[in-house]
Amino acid sequence: MTTTPTQILDKNGKQTTVHKKGDVVITSPRAKRAPTVKITPGESEYELIDGEVVSVPNSVTDFRGVTTNEYGDRCFVSVGWENKDGSEYLIALTPCCNASGKGWYDDEAEMGLTVCRKCMNEVSDIHGDEVRPGAYTPLAAA
Ligand SMILES: [Zn+2]
Fold first, then answer.
1. What is the DSSP letter of 117?
2. Cα–Cα distance between 57 and 92 in angstroms, integer?
3. What angle do CA 62, 67, 73 make, to 5 degrees?
4. CA 67 to CA 136: how far, in whole Å?
5. Nearest-angstrom CA–CA distance, 142 and 131
6. In this predicted structure, what is the pLDDT of residue 38?
7. What integer pLDDT is reported at residue 141 of this predicted model?
8. Is 126 helix (H, G, I), strand (E, B) or coil?
9. How close is the Cα of 90 to the center of ligand 1, in Å?
């Protein structure tokens, strides 16, 4: 703490100098700054409605929340596209690449699959579907 010299009159009417406490002079610029949140470069932090803070790569655009697929992978929810009525069609990004999923017909297995649009590996069906309200943990209200 730094004290400030102040001229006062003492009880005998003589001028004297005191070092007045209480006038706090902040000398370090760090003293007033809020604690620094550590963020990995290329990531941003978002708070979910349940209070959890998640780090999301900046490559994920239009981040809206987090969901979990049936394999237990946590997936980022983002906007697939905007519907005609202005609402958002939300998708769960793939855990492998943070990409969208797409339908794929496997000729050998003679069945339709959902694959990652980027690496083409098979992913959970949730990545080929709309993520509806209640099926994910949304961002905290701003
Ligand atoms: Zn992938």
1. T
2. 15
3. 115
4. 5
5. 21
6. 57
7. 83
8. helix
9. 18
Taking the centre of ligand 1 as the mean of its atom positions, its distance from the CA of residue 94, in whole angstroms, is 6
The pLDDT score that the predictor gives to residue 33 is 52
Sign, Cα dihedral of 94, 136, 74, 86: positive
Å from CA of 54 to ligand 1 middle: 20
Task: Give the model confidence (pLDDT) of 94-118 as tens digits.
Answer: 999 999 999 999 898 899 999 999 9
Nearest to 43 by CA among 35, 31, 52, 54: 54
What averages of pLDDT result for each successive group of 10 residues across the chain (142 residues)? 59 63 48 54 92 95 95 95 95 96 92 95 94 96 76
> How much distance in Å is there from the Cα of 141 to the middle of ligand 1?
30
**End-to-end CA gap in the chain:** 38
> Which pLDDT score, from 0 to 100, does residue 41 have?
75
CA 138, CA 136: separation in Å to the nearest integer? Answer: 6
The tokens 């943070």 sit on which residue? 98
CA distance 77 to 137: 9
CA distances (Å), origin 71, targets 68, 92, 95: 8, 13, 10
Distance CA 86, CA 83 (A): 5
